[in-house]
Amino acid sequence: MVTGQRRVPSVPMLRRALLHVEGEIRWHEPLASHTSLQVGGLADVLVIPADVEDVVRVVRGARMSHIPLMVLGGTNVIIRDKGIRGIVMLLKQLTQIQEEPKQMVYAQAGVRLPRLMQFALSRKLSGMEWAAGIPGTVGGGVVMNAGTRLGEMRDVLQAVDFVTIHGKQKRIDASTLSFLYRKTLLPRGIVIGAWMQLTSAVQETIQSATKHYLQYRKATQPLTLPNAGSVFKNPTGDSAGRLIEAAGLKGLRIGDAEVSTKHANFIVNRGAATAEQVLLLVRKVRDRVARKFGVRLKLEWKVVGEK
Ligand code: EPU
C-alpha cells in the first residue's frame, strides 16, 4: 500500500479524491482480469492515470483524504476474493520508452518487459536477455528486482523515477538502493520509470540467447495456463520446485487451483479458481514440504486484499 490507513472509504470520499484525475476511472472493477492468475475480487475504484502528472494527482488526492492506494502490477500478486478497499492504480498508460545517449534506455513503469526486450533488440542493445519470458512490467520488475538465473534488474538499473507518498517526483540513483532476492528496498511511493544501462552487441547474439532461454522456459513452465510465476522463493542451495515435486505434490488440486504438473513451483488456474482455493493450496504445499524436509518455503508472491 502506498498511502492511507486501513479504513473503508465511502464513494463520495473517493470521488472527491479523484476529482481532478484525467485518466480512466472504473468503479467496482473486477481485478481478476487484471492479474495473470485471474483470481481476486473487486477494487472500490480502479484508476488508470493518463500520465505522470495524473499519478501525482491520484497520490495527492488519496493522501489528503487518507484513502488507501495501491499500485497493481498484476503478475506476481494474488488478490484475495473480497477485493481491495480504496484506490487501485494501474500504470498501463505509462508506456514511453526511449534510447538515451551511451546505450542508456529509459522506460516508464507500465512498459511490459517483453516490449522492452524487443526495443533493446531492435537497437542492438544487450543486457535485458535475462527477462525473456517474464510477463511483468518495468515498474513491477524494479520493485521486485525481477530476475532469472541469467540475471536480474539490479544488473542494469541505473536510476529510478519515483513519486513519493507526498506526491513529489524525484530520481533515485540505483547505487543508493539495496537489492535483495526478488525485492528492492525502496522508500514508500510509486516507481514511474527506470533508467537502464545496456551495452552494444550483435543482434544475432542477443536473439539467440533470448531464444534459447525462452525455449527452456516453454519446455519447463506452464506458460499457457493462467499463473502468477514462481509461488515460492528458492531456499538457499535448493529449489522449491524440486522439493515440492519430491513431496509428491505435482497435480495436487483444490477446486480449480492446481500445482502444475509441468513445474511444481507454479500454481495454475484450471478455469474458475478462487483466491481462497489458491491460498489453501499454498498452505498445504508449504506444510507438506515442511513436514517432509524440514524446509519452510517462503512465498515469492505478494498477497493483498480483504479476507
Ligand atoms: N525441478 C524439479 N521439479 C519441478 C521443477 C523443477 O525437480 O517440478 C528442479 C529442476 O529439475 C531443476 C531445479 O528444480 O533442477 C530448478 O528448476 P528450474 O530450472 O525450473 O528453475 P527454478 O529455480 O524452479 C527459477 C526462477 C524462475 C525462472 C527459472 C529459470 C525462482 C523462484 N524461480 O526457477 O522465475 O523462470 O529459474 O531461470 O527463482 C519467477 O520468478 O516467477 C520465475 C518464473
For the secondary structure, the number of strands is 20
> What is the number of helices?
7
Helix/strand/pairing class, anyone?
Answer: alpha+beta
Order of helices and strands: HEEHEEEEEHEHEEEEEEEEHHEEEHE
Biggest sheet details: 5 strands, antiparallel
Unreliable residue stretches: none
Q: List cofactors, ions and other ligands.
A: uridine-diphosphate-2(N-acetylglucosaminyl) butyric acid
Q: Please, what is the average pLDDT?
A: 95
Brief overview:
The protein is of the alpha+beta class and about 300 residues long. The chain is built from seven helices and 20 strands. The strands form seven sheets. It has a five-stranded antiparallel sheet.
Structure description:
The chain has 307 residues and is of the alpha+beta class. It has seven helices and 20 strands. The protein has a five-stranded antiparallel sheet. Strands 1-2-5-3 form a four-stranded mixed sheet, covered by helices on one side. A three-stranded antiparallel sheet has the order 17-18-19. The two termini are 16 Å apart. The mean pLDDT is 95. Uridine-diphosphate-2(N-acetylglucosaminyl) butyric acid binds at residues 148-149, 217, 220, 229-230, 233-234, 239-242, 245, 263-265, 300.
